[in-house]
Amino acid sequence: MELKVNGQAMSLPEIASDPAMPLLWALRDGLNLTGTKFGCGIAACGACTVHVDGQATRSCVTPLGACQGKAITTIEGLGDKDHPHALQLAWLAEQVPQCGYCQSGMLMAAAALLAKNRNPSDADIDAAMTNLCRCGTYPRVRAAIKQATRGLKK
């Protein structure tokens, strides 16, 4: 089975090619893209959030078969050391990460929001950011999203 991940066609090894396998495990175990985290396994926490055709998607409950022919973006494809995404810069500036476990999913959910709405209100942010954070960094997340909007407008 082949997937388009982070702009590249990638072949999954046989062990990670069952169409019923959750996308999360195909990414982590099949493609060694370990930035996407396992949290709850029931799509409640959002640690596993990736983009599937630009939509924030909980990969722990998304079957691999539903992703064929679609563009998948993981945290590894959001930005890199030389060209970070505006959200990644804002995350650091606002000191969002505490333990960091939820952060890749938070960033991916925030990126999907900003792709649709470059100037979200607090209510828009609250509605889109349904990811859970044990450390309670929600005010910092909101501030970072607002800061990133300024970086995206440049």
Can you walk me through this structure?
This protein is α+β, with helices and mostly antiparallel strands and 154 residues long. The chain has helices at 23-30, 75-78, 86-93, 103-116, 122-128, 138-153; strands spanning 2-5, 8-11, 49-52, 55-58, 71-73. It has a five-stranded mixed sheet. It is globular and about 45 Å long.
Secondary-structure blueprint:
Blueprint (H helix, E strand, L loop, with lengths): L1 E4 L2 E4 L11 H8 L18 E4 L2 E4 L12 E3 L1 H4 L7 H8 L9 H14 L5 H7 L9 H16 L1
Parallel strand pairs: 1-5
Antiparallel strand pairs: 1-2, 3-4, 3-5
Helix pairs in contact: 3-6
- Compute the number of strand runs: 5
Structural class label: alpha+beta
Proportion of residues in β-strands: 5-15%
User: What is the terminal-to-terminal distance?
Assistant: 39 Å
Q: Supply the number of structural domains.
A: 2
Descriptive terms for the model:
6 helices; alpha+beta; DNA polymerase, domain 1; Ubiquitin-like (UB roll); five-stranded mixed sheet; 154 residues
Tell me briefly what this model is:
The protein is α+β, with helices and mostly antiparallel strands and 154 residues long. It has helices spanning 23-30, 75-78, 86-93, 103-116, 122-128, 138-153; strands spanning 2-5, 8-11, 49-52, 55-58, 71-73.
